[in-house]
Amino acid sequence: MELLRGNDQYADRDRRTVCNNTTIEDYSGLRWGVRTFAVRLHNHIIIRFSEDGEVVVDSCGYRTATTKDRINRCLPKPWRVCQTKGVWVLWKRNDVDLIEEVPFVDGMTVPETGDGLRSTD
Q: In the predicted model, is pLDDT for residue 78 greater than 60?
């Protein structure tokens, strides 16, 4: 998420490459009234975040180490996608303890970033 916060370098571009096979694009035209950005990995939108604070994550069915890495690079702290026995979960951690564990669901809004945990399906 820090990739775009307070960073106006994207104001004059619709899309920018940030990592191998990963781009950030202005997604605002598809969400009326709120500036929104989308992170794409291999042309699949894996995370969307808006100026209003909402963060939506989606593996697009590709639960790989690379997808998890790109999502984790953008997630607001203290949230992280982790894997337990092959199952993806969202962990909310402080420096020492696990505070909350939420099952990862494609299309979900990260808790405390929008209007709660919900799937877009």
A: yes
pTM over 0.85: no
Alpha carbons 102 and 55: distance in angstroms, whole number: 15
Q: Please check whether residue 51 is in contact with residue 71, taking contact to mean a CB–CB distance below 8 angstroms.
A: no
88-97: long-range contacts at Cβ-Cβ below 8 A with a sequence spacing of 24 or more? Answer: 88/59, 88/63, 90/57
CB 21 within 8 A of CB 42: yes
Residue 1 contacts by C-beta under 8 Å, 6 or more apart in sequence?
A: 49, 55, 74, 75, 76
The residues, ordered by sequence, that sit 6+ positions from 86 with a Cβ below 8 Å of its Cβ are none
